[in-house]
Amino acid sequence: MKRTPTPPRWADRLLSWFCAPHLLEEVQGDLYERFQRRVTLFGEHSARQQYVWDVLSFIKPFAIKRKSNQTTSPFIFSHDMIKNYLKIAIRNLQRQRLYAVINVLGLAVGLACCLTIYLFIKDELRYDTFHEKADRVYRLRNDRITEGRVNHMARSAPAYGPAMKAYLPEVEKIFRIFTFNDPLVVYNNNRFKQTGFILADSTIFDVLTLPLVRGNKEEALKGQGSLVISEAMAERYFGKEDPLNKILKVDGGLEFRVTGVMLNMPRHSHLELNAIGSFNTLRDIISDHARLESWGWQQMFTYVLLTPGADPARVNDKITAMVERYANPEQRDDAYRTTLQPLKDIYLHSAELEYDLARKGNIRYVYAFAIVALITLLIACFNFMNLSTARSMQRAKEVGLRKSIGAQRSQLVGQFLGESMVLTALAMVLAIGLTAVVLPVLNSWAGKELSLLDALSPLFLVQILAALLVVGLLAGLYPAFFLSAFQPIKVLKGTLETKAQGGYGLRKTLVVVQFAVSTALIIGAGVVYYQLNYVQQKNLGFNKEQLVIMPFQSDDMRRDYKSIKQELLQNPNILSATACYGLPGGMFAGDGVKLPGQGKEVGISMFLIDPDYIPTMGMELVAGRNLSEQYGTDVEEAFLINETAVKALGWSTPEQALGKEMLWPKWVPANPADTLKRGKVIGVVKDFHYKSLHQKIEPLVLHVHEPAYYTMVARVRPEKMAAALDFLKTEWEARAPEFPFEYEILDQQFAKFYDSEQIFKKLFLLFTSLSIFIACLGLLGLATFMAQQRTKEIGIRKVMGASVAGIVMLLSKDFLKLVMVGIIIASPLAWYFMNQWLQSFSYRVDIAWWIFGLAGLLVVGVALLTVSFQSIKAALMNPIQSLRSE
User: Fold this and answer.
1) Higher pLDDT, 849 or 787
2) In 552-601, where do the E strands start and end?
């Protein structure tokens, strides 16, 4: 039999490989006809060669196969097809309203958490970014390491800045800040306690972006007593008058001439600046001018502007070398390590810094909230995936029918993703509404001014659309590919395995993850609450209750403090009173003392007190005696120290410290020829906390120095606080009628140490509650679906005599097992992360076992309540109706 000539097979395969499917049949047929004619005319060998040439010549752009055409129809993403996807999606959601509500509500809460936290974090990261040279601006910070103790301080000595400008070529500009403590500022009849009042070098305008609307920034702070004020302050004091060259009186003694008006400081600044006085004015305030060139008087905030391209790490090394070379050996303290802190880091990375004037956030809390936001959103997405795969039985026949009539897998994926996008879009709209409701609460807790209207911008809208797309894909991608992979023959024959069909293993995993995360958050919230309760209840070493703090309003009041105290003690509601500079939770001095035979000063904290301070504050002595007016030499020759200072100064016991000599450079010497206070340790005070519990107790010296007294502190009868305050106000206004009466309660002042932790606690509890709510919402939906799937089984069991309790346990036990696994996984993780958080406190609680037990019971209880609601409902159903259900 004669063989029929055929084209080369490899040429046919090549054509099938590259040619577009909708052209292949027609092209191949034409080439076959041409091949047969050429066989007749030129022979088989020549026809085969021509066939190969024809195939190769057909490799042209219009004929090349495209991937989209290989798997989808040309119209899969057409307007009509997308419209059809949406129509089917809406119909499915209407048929399954319970699951639609659960998914939309869960996603909405998750998205609202994310959106709220996003606005919060965005606001936190904006601080100090408005300065034009922010990337080159740094602040000096000091780390002091002594005998295992580390103090992190924002202050530096006045000599550092000028020395860096003189000796370090990388330093372009410097300026120093000296702060006032809200002085009383007076102009005619306008008198206010003014916040944000500082003295600074004139170069502050070259380093920071502080535009002047009046005056010349080159000259504004050159003269002694010159002052630049903000627009708000100008309006407050001068109204519509021209403020330039007007005189403002500060704290009754100093006079400043207004030489410039600057724009109001943006809210996102670590500095609150309303008034900037000339740094040279310090010579009118500090009698000992040598302090202004000191390497040891740590009372300044120093900022530097580096030259473009300068390496901060190299500058840090040069600072150390500079101090070793140029600093006065008697003032230099080798325990200090001075480094640069970037301007943009000051707000979020200064939580551990002491003696700071900056507004502060905490980068740890930014990270924590970001993680909580992500976790909450993932839990909501897990709910969607769980319910979608669980409901696969109801969608399986739909998938099988669509595939049997020609639907491609990509079309089914598009349909399921369309449903996911519809749900996500509805959830996003609801989430924006929830965020608008939550923001006022967040603002009141965190002291912020967050607003959705302020956030509206083209970039924000793009971010919202991107979030919508990402969440829609994240929630819907796995269910879409899972459902579209069903084989139509097995589906229509009903031979799919139930567990495989419903993504059984994945559902169990997601439930475990959800409740592990929820348990970890509950444990975290419990530890935060336990620690903050501890710091509020801890014995601080003194009695902080019922202490009223009143600043002296004038030099006359300060000089007359003894008669004021005697008048206060005449009132039966005043138990005791003391004058001082130095209070727990408030201002105190950071200074130095010398010991005989030692050339260098020893850096130490200092309280300047009168003899009634120790009994008024409720402190205890562990050795020696208290200061007393009965000993005439105590004013000039006596010191008290705390227990920590005993060890820091080289003595082994409090008793050994008694009688030891100590020298202190007087701030305001009565005799210019006698600038040193020479005295002995007469008593040792039991350690008390005068800083936050974040810091360890530091060495402290307490002694008499009347010119420094800043406040009067009165202990009031607990039941007579209101009457005592009325009396104190009358006394203060009688002595200083031109000043408003101001006071603080010491325990409230001390509580300010933990403001950021209190905000964190509230927000953490809120978002933890929401994440648990979302997890339980998903569990409710899953339990409802599983109960519906087992309706017939429940009916048969009831007919066979099963009790309601038995059926409830049957439906609940599988979920409870998963919850228990989640608790076991969560516990060690929660312990690790919360133990890390507790390290920021020098005095902290141990993480007790009962916190884990309580968290576990709470999670099990909530999960059992959620599942039992649906289980009891299913168990109580009439078995006849149950058996008819299928």
Assistant:
1) 849
2) 574-581, 589-593
